[in-house]
Amino acid sequence: MRRFAIAFVLAAGGSTLLTTGCVGAEKTEEQARAEVFEKAESASGPSAARDVEQLEEWSGRNVTLVGIFNHLNFKHGVLELKSGLKVYLPHFDLFMEGDDWFKYIGKRCWAKGILHTYTKNIEGYRGPSLELNDFSGP
Fold this sequence. Notes:
Layout: E1 10-12, E2 15-17, H1 29-40, H2 52-55, E3 62-72, E4 76-80, E5 86-89, H3 92-95, E6 108-116, E7 129-136
């Protein structure tokens, strides 16, 4: 939310009108990240899914998932949800190109994107995947 204050002085016939707009505090990046973690970890959200069947409800939709980040073959990302369910982040190395993404391994992170619950034919992995739009960690 942008901070703004508008002062409009109208002097007509000796009367003065002073109008002030709403002033709100901007959220810091840290506060915005904490808010995402709170919302994504709600008991009814996709991050609370215990198995692929529960995750199926959000298939094909944009979702935010929170979990512990790991990798597969130094190429693909894996987000382990609180329940232990793993969601694959295909070609994570290309998505994070130019960033030292290994610093996120073992840390609590969130990922946004389109959820797919069908099985990918990736060697060493079977399960749901997230077509990434955004990713953040500590």
